[in-house]
Amino acid sequence: MIETDIEIINKLGLHARAAARLVGVTSQYQAKIQLGRDGRLIDAKSIMALLMQGAGKGTRLRLIVDGPDEAAAHAAVVALINNRFDEAE
Q1: Which DSSP string corresponds to 37-79?
Q2: Is the pTM value of this prediction over 0.85?
């Protein structure tokens, strides 16, 4: 299991397009991938759950990845978030 705190840094936060990109990445892995804050974790493979997080710019989220391909999944999610979901600012 890998646990990390990560900050949403893109201008629009975890909006619909960013959430769709995140689901596209997380769905490629067998590992269970969760994101959350204040002790409330959600399934990072669910676009509805991601949108309900209401994570704007500057929000710190806990990322928990557990499963057979956890290292690759963790690296992919962190890279996507740190790359501002591949969106122009």
Answers
A1: ETTEEEETT-HHHHHHT---TT-EEEEEEESTTHHHHHHHHHH
A2: yes
Listed by start position, the domains of the chain span 2-86
What are the two backbone dihedrals, phi and then psi, of residue 13, each rounded to the nearest 5 degrees?
A: 70, -160
CATH architecture entry for 2-86: 2-Layer Sandwich (3.30)
Instruction: Return the pLDDT at 86.
Output: 84
Mean residue pLDDT across the chain:
94
- Which residues are catalytically annotated? 15
